[in-house]
Amino acid sequence: MYGNENFTLITGASMGIGKAFAFECASRGMNLLLIALQEPRLEETKEDICSKYPVEVVTYGADLTEPSAVTALFQYCLQQKIKVNILINNVGMGAGGRFENISPDFYLQMLNLNNQVMTMMTYYFLPMLKESSSAYILNMSSMEATLPLPYKSVYTGTKNFIYAFSLALREELARSNVKVSVVCPGPVLTNPDGLKRINSHGKRAKLIMLMPEEVAKIGIKNLLQGKGVIVPGKVSWTIVKLMKFCPTSLKMKMLERVFRVYRDH
């Protein structure tokens, strides 16, 4: 039982940006509830954080796409009296290639993890967040949410959903104690497959590539400042702003040429 202590809940917390969020929050003295698949690296992440920072770290291993997994997690928090005042919906997955070349099962899994899990996590934990004097929700989208990418059509669709959902919910909760932010990074080096994708674009991708630790630092800083849309990196921010003034037909032709490298993946 954890009593009156507040916790920051992070999904997908055992690797990549989620793990970086965990370390960034711990460095700010936040207690953590880390959610990821039940694998050794989840406990390894906990041990690493506890060896560096004097915070409470609780781990919960689960596949959040399983039926009732989110409700089971919420009930666990109630039973253990874990009070969540910051919810970071980070977990997600993606893929590139021609739309018809990827299996429908993979698409359903992506839609479930990227959108359904985030929506249900927000739904169940929002009443708890409202009980805190100050609370935050941070949803992980992508700069691709504003730049629909050919050959990543379903992935960018899921990220656009997160972007729109976050901005709409932010306005709904504007007069409450809960602040909602959405973070929209460009390419982030999180795993070997990500490195292959970045290398396929050559030097232009490396100009806007960030490390997970950079995204986490910028994301948490701006979240706590109450910023709505967070685009880490000056180059990525500039691209997003400039593309707003580009005619849609021209923008889509440009994006098709740039991301044609994914066509045969």
TrEMBL record:
Q: Which Gene3D superfamilies match?
A: NAD(P)-binding Rossmann-like Domain (3.40.50.720)
Identify the keywords attached in UniProt to this record, alphabetized: Oxidoreductase
Superkingdom is: Bacteria
Q: Which GO terms describe its cellular component?
A: membrane
Its name, as the record gives it, is: Short-chain dehydrogenase
Is Oxidoreductase a UniProt keyword of this protein?
A: yes
The terms under GO molecular function for this entry are: oxidoreductase activity
Q: Which Pfam families does the UniProt entry name for this protein?
A: adh_short
Q: Which PROSITE patterns match?
A: ADH_SHORT (PS00061)
Q: Which family does it belong to?
A: Belongs to the short-chain dehydrogenases/reductases (SDR) family.
